[in-house]
């Protein structure tokens, strides 16, 4: 990947491109960072690159003809032109990952009042911001983007898993980190991290990341797949009509969807032994389906599989909670989770969740289930 930064202050970027992880990546040829001096494209004795803004208010604005000459010099086939500005789209991990797929990024750093808007309208593909505040120029936002991009280039970061565990990469904040000594000023490193048990360590890290996200940035849950952050397994519960035509095909389709999203089992009720015998042959290729005679037995079966109280998310309650709050409470819970479509059992902690709303009318049940599971377990 190549990144070209056009700036009136190239020294600011030169040292950055030779330092730390980015510097090593440039040295190894894993990422190409080019710094171009905007003043090289100015004309006249004073090499003027800016002028007063029209309208009598504001400061200096970079001139469009100078910017255009610089662009013609740096732009090649497939170049995407960026402009860091407070009025741009907020730079998120999702946006960084999208930009990492580009062959060549050309970042034009503004100063004072920024770039002439006509140049922006004609040439700039994306305006981005690193936060709701104003900086002197675009150099720091340019360095921020380059640093974030470099971490996604294979071979730049020593351990690829450390990138996958970074904050925002999977929608959650990063887990806390500790080093020696194991006890400092009376504060001990969590025992799980010194246990030597990889499974126990991974479980602690996931729960710690979930807890940190819930307390500091619960808004991030909307884009997170929470499956890895649950303490126990998740199940899909269905109330069905044993006499309905096409029941086996519908159950098979739902089971396939549930499996794709990582749910442990589909539990259908009420289906007694006779009903199950009728369906057995048709469902023989779908072992993920469990048939029980009642919704109460469904809840009992799910609760027995793991330790901890059963959490039931009733997915079709008109007066229920928004799905984001149901998702937050699911991550907060410690026991198995049953996402239920149909009658609600008497036992277990029940969270009523309002159904999906679609402008075109009611969804078929298979589509409704898919959409609901995607909100909980889909990758952003």
UniProtKB/TrEMBL annotation:
InterPro entries: Alpha/beta_knot_MTases, tRNA_m1G_MeTrfase_C_sf, tRNA_m1G_MeTrfase_TrmD, tRNA_m1G_MTases_N, tRNA_MeTrfase_TRMD/TRM10. It catalyses: guanosine(37) in tRNA + S-adenosyl-L-methionine = N(1)-methylguanosine(37) in tRNA + S-adenosyl-L-homocysteine + H(+). It is found in: Cytoplasm. GO terms for cellular component: cytosol. Residues 1-221 form the tRNA methyltransferase TRMD/TRM10-type domain. S-adenosyl-L-methionine binds at residues 110, 130-135. GO terms for biological process: tRNA N1-guanine methylation. It holds the Pfam family tRNA_m1G_MT. Keywords: Cytoplasm, Methyltransferase, S-adenosyl-L-methionine, Transferase, tRNA processing. GO terms for molecular function: tRNA (guanine(37)-N1)-methyltransferase activity. Coiled coil: none annotated. Its EC number is 2.1.1.228. Belongs to the RNA methyltransferase TrmD family. Homodimer. Specifically methylates guanosine-37 in various tRNAs. This is tRNA (guanine-N(1)-)-methyltransferase. It comes from Pyramidobacter porci. The lineage of its organism: Bacteria, Thermotogati, Synergistota, Synergistia, Synergistales.
